[in-house]
Design a protein that fits this description.
The protein is of the alpha+beta class. It has helices spanning 3-25, 36-41, 60-66, 69-83, 91-98, 121-129, 179-190, 192-208, 235-246, 281-293; strands at residues 29-34, 45-50, 53-58, 87-89, 133-144, 147-158, 164-171, 210-218, 229-230, 233-234, 253-258, 261-269, 301-306, 310-315. It is 38% helix and 29% strand.
């Protein structure tokens, strides 16, 4: 073997090793938003109708447009996380392009139950941004003889399940610095444990899969239901077998079900599909939809989504 070939072989091995190592140490993607409490205190809220109930939600568009400190604060805190290796999604720019105001246009009426399926503005934003984690930031200013003190709370939520996965709180030292700068320093001084909690959560995601919820329904116009047999097995049993084959470690829970309805919870899906793209509830449900299109099922169905972590597959028609 020539020296040139040896060099090429060593370079190739080094490249592979670096690629594998980089994948192992990769941090999750995060999106930073003002907390609901912060938005409520400053009256940045809006109301919309969700399945007949008036719901008050944070109005991020107004908050970013009208509050002078907010973009600067999120930029400073985002810089701290970026410096630690996290991939930061720019929520402000996405909100401006998305124009999330009302969610009624995203509602859909089910022929089976008559219930509507609506996405909140935050659901829409999470689906568009496709971040792993949503970090909500709250801060407050108190006066001290030696200067102002900035208090903060960071709460990290799984973007797919809305479960809280990490928390950090702290105070700045009395300072004359601008609020964004003082907050940046306070976060740096108190973020190590927060980082460890996020690492632990992400390691678990890579090992055991990310959690979603999947509901299977039937249009009332469909002549079949989930008890219809295919090759001697009821459709519900066929779907459960597909779930075992396509979830991480076969992990899911059929929490409720009838002849026209099945509710799957704690469905653990891979972080990425076969093509290396991020997997979410819509992609997973679409894979099941395509499976049921084939013989012996030949079922036409429709996927309806809510955020990243919840999908409804309705059988019988589009």
């Amino acid at each position: 073997m020539t020296i040139r070939r040896i060099f090429i072989l060593l370079a190739t091995c080094l490249f592979i090793a670096i690629s594998v190592f980089a994948d192992d140490v990769k941090k999750p993607t995060v999106m930073i938003l003002p907390s609901d409490n912060w938005c409520t205190q400053r009256y940045f809220t809006q109301s919309f109708d969700n399945q007949g109930t008036t719901v008050k939600v944070s109005d991020y568009q107004r908050a970013f447009t009208e509050d002078i400190e907010l973009p600067q604060v999120i930029s400073k805190v985002g810089g701290v996380l970026t410096g630690m290796g996290y991939s930061l999604k720019d929520a402000e720019m996405e909100i401006k392009s998305l124009g999330v105001k009302q969610a009624e246009s995203n509602a859909m009426s089910s022929k089976t139950s008559g219930a509507s399926i609506a996405e909140t503005p935050l659901d829409i934003l999470k689906r568009r941004m496709k971040s792993d984690i949503v970090i909500q930031l709250w801060w407050n200013i108190t006066k001290d003889p030696a200067g102002k003190i900035v208090s903060f709370t960071l709460e990290a939520f799984d973007a797919y399940t809305n479960k809280r996965i990490a928390t950090a709180t702290g105070n700045s030292k009395p300072t004359a610095d601008a609020i964004p700068v003082a907050l940046e320093k306070a976060v740096k001084d108190n973020v190590k444990e927060f980082d460890k909690q996020l690492d632990k959560w992400y390691d678990d995601q890579k090992k055991n899969g990310r959690e979603i919820a999947l509901t299977v329904r039937c249009w009332d116009s469909w002549e079949n239901d989930l008890e219809t047999e295919y090759n001697g097995e009821e459709l519900t049993d066929c779907i459960q077998q597909w779930m075992r084959d396509n979830t991480v470690n076969g992990s899911f829970n059929l929490s409720d079900g009838t002849e026209s309805f099945s509710q799957f919870e704690q469905v653990c899906i891979p972080l990425k599909d076969k093509n290396g793209k991020a997997m979410d509830a819509r992609a997973f449900a679409t894979t099941l939809r395509k499976h049921l299109q084939k013989p012996p099922y030949n079922i036409t169905s429709k996927v309806v989504i809510r955020g990243l972590g919840e999908a409804i597959l309705i059988l019988g028609e589009k």
